[in-house]
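Sharing a chain and its predicted structure for anyone who wants a worked example. Both blocks are below, sequence first, tokens second.
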Amino acid sequence: QVRLAESGGGLVQAGGSLRLSCTASGRTFSRHTWAWFRQAPGKEREFVAVITFSWSGDTAYYADSVKGRFTISRDSAKNTVYLQMNSLKPEDTAVYYCAARQNYCSGSGCYAAVTSYDYWGQGTQVTVSS
């Protein structure tokens, strides 16, 4: 059974940093597309970042709201993906979810869509105080 487990959320002051981790079990995800989404109260789940596998090297894409502040990375040996979040703002407060997709995802119409992903974690709360 495939399972994604997030960790690393918490309470941080504005301007601070957090690193989220998502570890997969049940199968190898070395060539999967991994993504982070977030959902604030009363809002829809939104795309944050994605890292896609290719033989020439991984490629990362970010939502405009986090570009330059967040970095997604993966450690295939550990079946883990990370989201380093710096210069956090109160508007970053949300439940953060990791997701994985078995096949390559081309273009934002694919990688930014909730429906594109096969597996989801349970979410981890990130709260940024002002």
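Comments welcome. The chain is about 5% helix and 50% strand.
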